[in-house]
Write a structure and sequence with these properties.
CATH superfamily of chain A: ComB-like
Largest interface: A-B, 25 and 25 residues
Strand order of the largest sheet of chain A: 8-2-9-1-10
Oligomer: homodimer
Mean pLDDT of chain A: 93
Strand content of chain A: 15-25%
Shape of chain A: globular
Order of helices and strands of chain A: EEHEHEEEHEHEHEHEHHHHEE
CATH architecture of chain A: Alpha-Beta Complex
Distance between the termini of chain A: 27 Å
Radius of gyration of chain A: 17 Å
Structural class of chain A: alpha/beta
CATH class of chain A: Alpha Beta
Number of domains of chain A: 1
Largest sheet of chain A: 5 strands, parallel
CATH topology of chain A: putative 2-phosphosulfolactate phosphatase
Number of strands of chain A: 12
Low-confidence stretches of chain A: none
């Protein structure tokens, strides 16, 4: 059987849209967008509409949607709650369509729109995600959303964890230095993931804003078996 | 004493020119441009003019300059020799001004032109380079030239080796995830650098073109104490 290609992209600034027409792109933004989105589906959300723009989020709110939006750690006055995974409880999200306002994650999702398919990955759904990818039998691009176009450690380490599982299946090959580096960084991080992430710049930013209560949760593997899939600009459950 | 900032950039696509006005930018392109340039100065070259364009290189040749230029592993017919460090022997380069045709390296050098100063780094001059940087007492950006804007392992590992020395001096701080990741990858590579670089995509590309004879040399530390410095678009010796 022909092996599938596995690649990793460390930042939206490194993404080349035309190159991934045949690939499944996995958006990774674990602190906090991709973890929050996985949690919402775990708790029964029907769909998530990612929007980059505050005024767009406001318009959705006026039309009756649940809206998650914050800036610099403060929940925006018109929003229902902020962007932490802990906000997406079953009581709040079950059966609901939610608008999720995020600059980073949405930018990555838009860039990936030319891909064969776009899905959302995090530690929270890593087992289900990798099984789902293997079944799909397609080339895969692990796309780290980064922060303001910069490389970040936490998304890279998650990409490395996903890549390690996919490579172990023996169904993929990789001639991509980013993938190999991500796997190596994961090998250093895996024994004490919260300890390793301590040095990440985003860890410090979240601590400074007192938004770091969810980090340990975001580093938990296999909290859910949901794989959020992008369909016509809206994230829905894979089932 | 106030500590200086140390940052790392993994690709020209990630470089933000306006951010480094006060920094010394170290261009790292070890397979093979930055290693070849260090070797040329070690062997007595007076200056190196990096040019991205073949027709520009041709013009220099017509005016009597020594020109190093190749495409896809073949020395261009008008050039004196190719881009391998092994071409820059004392017999050929001592006392000479050399034109070095390279797409990657030159792109990075041009991007860095707004920086306080631009220098060339490799394993070959790592000891002298780090001592020189410490004496300069400035913010430092380690700028990996990459390959076609992609992240690459070999430049990252070299950046990590340089960063480890600078951080050990206790004169620098880093809140840059790229620097921390580079140091970690260097910690994995340092025990067997040629073995580690085996998996790099550029290693394979050079092997396929039979241009890999110089790799072991390019991974040698402290072959020279020269630090090539950019002055008005021309690289000269730091002395």
């Amino acid at each position: 059987m022909e092996k599938r290609k596995l690649e990793t992209c460390f930042s939206p600034a490194l993404f080349v849209p035309g190159e991934n027409l045949e690939s499944i792109v996995v958006i990774i933004d674990i602190l906090r967008a991709s973890s929050a989105i996985c949690t919402a589906f775990a708790n029964g959300a029907v769909a998530i509409i990612p929007v980059a723009d505050i005024s767009e989020a406001k318009n959705y709110k006026a039309r009756g949607y649940l809206v998650a939006a914050e800036r610099d750690g403060y929940v925006l006055d018109f929003a229902d709650f902020g962007n932490s995974p802990f906000n997406f409880t079953r009581e709040k999200v079950e059966g609901k369509i939610i608008v999720y306002n995020t600059t980073n994650g949405t930018g990555a999702i838009n860039l990936a729109s030319s891909a064969y398919m776009t899905v959302v990955g995090s530690f929270l759904n890593i087992g289900a995600l990798t099984q789902w990818l293997i079944k799909k039998d397609r080339n895969v691009l692990l796309f780290c959303a980064g922060w303001k176009n910069r490389f970040n450690i936490e998304d890279t380490v998650c990409a490395g964890a996903i890549a390690e599982i996919l490579m172990a299946s023996n169904l993929y090959f990789s001639v991509c230095d980013s993938t190999l580096a991500a796997i190596d960084l994961w090998s250093l991080a895996s024994h004490d993931l919260p300890g390793y992430i301590e040095k990440a710049a985003q860890r410090t930013r979240l601590r400074d804003k007192k938004l770091d209560d969810c980090i340990e949760f975001c580093l938990t593997s296999d909290y859910t078996d949901r794989v959020p899939v992008m369909k016509s600009g809206i994230l829905v459950d894979n089932i």
